[in-house]
Amino acid sequence: MVTKRDMILEAGIKVFSQKGYHHAKMEDIAVAAGIGKGTIYEYFSSKLQLFQEIMEAGLRQYQESVSTEKISQMGIAERIQKITAGHFYFCQNYKELSRILFWDTDIIDDELKDWFYNKRKEKEGVLEDLIRESIRSGELREVDAKLVTLMIGGILGQIWMPIVLEGWEAEAESTAWQITDLIMNGIVPST
Amino acid sequence: MVTKRDMILEAGIKVFSQKGYHHAKMEDIAVAAGIGKGTIYEYFSSKLQLFQEIMEAGLRQYQESVSTEKISQMGIAERIQKITAGHFYFCQNYKELSRILFWDTDIIDDELKDWFYNKRKEKEGVLEDLIRESIRSGELREVDAKLVTLMIGGILGQIWMPIVLEGWEAEAESTAWQITDLIMNGIVPST
Amino acid sequence: MVTKRDMILEAGIKVFSQKGYHHAKMEDIAVAAGIGKGTIYEYFSSKLQLFQEIMEAGLRQYQESVSTEKISQMGIAERIQKITAGHFYFCQNYKELSRILFWDTDIIDDELKDWFYNKRKEKEGVLEDLIRESIRSGELREVDAKLVTLMIGGILGQIWMPIVLEGWEAEAESTAWQITDLIMNGIVPST
Amino acid sequence: MVTKRDMILEAGIKVFSQKGYHHAKMEDIAVAAGIGKGTIYEYFSSKLQLFQEIMEAGLRQYQESVSTEKISQMGIAERIQKITAGHFYFCQNYKELSRILFWDTDIIDDELKDWFYNKRKEKEGVLEDLIRESIRSGELREVDAKLVTLMIGGILGQIWMPIVLEGWEAEAESTAWQITDLIMNGIVPST
DNA sequence: GATGAATGAGCATTCATTCAT
DNA sequence: CATGAATGAATGCTCATTCAT
C-alpha cells in the first residue's frame, strides 16, 4: 500500500531533484504530492529531515542494487561487473533519486554532508579491501588499491550523467561488461 | 597588479567554496575582500553573476592546466598523463576553486547549469575525438571511445576528493603516471 | 456528575494557567482532558470561547467566595474582612484559576478585555457604594471612596502573588483580619 | 537626537501596548515607525529582544520616577508620598509604556517572566526594609512589613487603571498625599 | 568610486479549525 | 458523539539588492 508518507517522499524526490534543495519549496512538494502544505509536517519534522530521509532511503536502496555480498564466491571481474550493472539499473530506474544522490551534493547541512561523506568512504573501504585481497590472491597485478578504488568510483559516478541527463538507454548488463573489460584490461591493444 | 575586482573574485572563491553558493552571503564576501558590501555591485551585477565569473575564470585556468594542445606530437599515453598531472596540480594549488568546479554543482540556476554542462561536454568531446583518433591509428584497441572518455573524466573528478578533503599530498607527476598506467593497461596481471 | 464539558473546562484551566492563552494549544488541552482534539469543538465553538467560559465560570465562583450580600447587617470592617478572607480562600483553593483571573490579563481579544474590565468596574462599584454608605453613616471618616476602593482592590490583587507563586500558606481568617486592620487603622502608631 | 533605534522603541511601545505582545506584528511596528520591516532587525535581533529592551528601558525610567534614594533624610510618610507621586507621574506621562509594564504581564517567555518577577521582588524588598526600619524607629506601629509592602504595591498597581484606561487626570502631588494619608491613618474616624 | 543603512520579497513553520470516518 | 488526519492562513526572520551620502 502506498502510504501518504511514501507519497510525500516520492514528491520530495521529484521536486528536490528538479529544483535542488534550496529552490524546492515545501509548498511545491505538497502540491506535487497532492496534499496541503501542513500535512508534510505531520510526517516529517522539517524540510531538512525530509531531505535526509530521502537520502537515507535512497542510499539504502542503492546499496541493495550494487551489493555483491550474497555471492561471495565471485571473482573480482564478476564483482566489478555486478556493481557496475547494479549502478546502471539504479540510475536508469531511479533517475530523480540518483540525481539527488550523485549530483546535487550541495552544502545543505554540515552534519548531513559529513554523514553522506562517511557513507561514501565506507563503501569505498569495502571495495578497496576487495581489491587488495584480489591483488594478494594474484587475481590482480600489483596496483595501488586506493587509486583503483577511486577509478572505479569515478567511473560509476560519471556514468550517471549521460543516463539521466541525456537519456542514454544503454543495455545495463553488456555495458557493464564493457566497462569491466576496460578496467580489467585497459585500453592498449593486447600484444 | 591585483585589482579590486580580483580581490572580490578571490574572496568569492574562498567563501563560496567554504559555505556553498546558497549559504554564502554577499556580506561575507565583502568582509573577506576587506571592502564594503555595496562595492561588489560596482564590479558584478549580482551574486549569480559573480559566481558565474568565478566559474568561468576557474574553468579557463583549469583548461590551461590540463591543455595538451601545444604539444601536438604527443602520444595518447603522454597526453593522458599530462592531463592527469595538470588536473592534480590544479586541485592541489587551487583547492577552493576546484571544490567549486568539481564538487558543489548544486542547482543554482538553470542557465548556469546548462552552460557548465556544455563546457564539460565540449571538453569531453575533445578527449573523445582524441581517443577515436588513437584507435584509428592503432595506438588503442577497439574500445568504446565514449566509455573511455567517461572513465577518464570520472577518475579525474574523483581524485579531487582525497586531495582537497583529506589533504592527500601525492606527487603529481608520478601519480599521474600510475593512473595512466591503470587506464592504459588495466589491472589484471600481464600474461 | 462530572460531565465531559467540565473535564474540558478543568483541563483548560490547567493548561491556560500554566502556559498562558497564546502558548496553550488546543491539543494540549485535549490531552490534559484525556480526549480527542476534535471533541473540544463539540462543546466549545473556539479556543477563545472556551477561554471566555472559563473566565466567566471562574468569576462567578469568585463572586460567591467574596460575596457579603447575604449578611447585610454587617459592619464595614466585617465586610472587608469577609471579602479578604474569601479572596484568600479562592486563591489558595483555585490557584490555577486565580492565576488566569488575576494575573495573565493579556490582550487576547478586545471584546473579552472590555467584558472583563466591566465586570471589574461593576464589582468595584458595589464596594464603592458600600464605602460611600459607611462614610455617610459615620462608620468611616471623610475619605475619597474611589481611592479606598482602588486601595482595597489593589491589595487583594497583589496578595494573589505570594500565595500562588511562592506557596504562601497563610491562615486566611486571621490574615484577613490583619489586612482589615491595616486598611481600617493605617500604619501609624495610635496616639 | 532621536535615533532610528529610539523610533523603533517608541513604535514598539505603541504597538505592543495596543495589541499586546502576541498580536503585535513586526510589520505593524515597522509601519508605526515609518520604516521597513527588515530595518528593525538592524537594531534588534528578534521580536522578543525588542520587547525585552522596551521592558528594561521602561523599568529603568520607572525606577528613576519612584526613587527616593537621593533624599535619605525623609520620613516614611514623605517617602510613600514621593513614590506614589512618582508612580502617578510615570503612568500619566508614559501611558503606553506603563500599560506594558503593569498590565500585560502575559506569559511571553519564561526567562523574561522570571527576570521581571525578580525585579519586582527586588523593588519590594527595598520597600519592605524601609518599613521594617520605620517600625523599629517607632515611626510605624507593629505591623506586618510584608503585608504593608503588598498593600502599597497593590495600590500603586491598581491606580494605573483609571489613569490610563479612563483618562483620570488627577493632580499627582495632592492625590499622592491623599493616598499616603489613607495608608498612614486608615479609614476609620480618628477618635 | 565606495559605502552600508534600509528595504521587502520570499519561505519554513505553527496551530486553530474542519470533516470524513 | 468522538476522533485525529488534513489543512492553509498567518508571521517572524533572512539576505540580495539599492541608493543617498
Automatic annotation (TrEMBL), chains A, B, C, D:
> Where the record puts its DNA-binding region(s)?
25-44
Which of UniProt's keywords are assigned here?
DNA-binding, Transcription, Transcription regulation
Q: Which Pfam families does the record associate with it?
A: TetR_C_24 (PF17932), TetR_N (PF00440)
**What are the HTH tetR-type domain coordinates in residue numbering?**
2-62
Family annotation (InterPro entries): Homeodomain-like_sf, HTH-type_Tx_Regulator, HTH_TetR, KstR2_TetR_C, Tet_transcr_reg_TetR-rel_C_sf
Cross-referenced SUPFAM superfamilies: Homeodomain-like (SSF46689), Tetracyclin repressor-like, C-terminal domain (SSF48498)
Is this entry keyworded Transcription?
yes
- One annotated GO biological process: negative regulation of DNA-templated transcription
GO MF annotations in UniProt: DNA binding
> Which named protein is this?
Tetracycline transcriptional regulator, TetR-related, C-terminal
Q: What is the lineage of its organism?
A: Bacteria, Bacillati, Bacillota, Clostridia, Eubacteriales
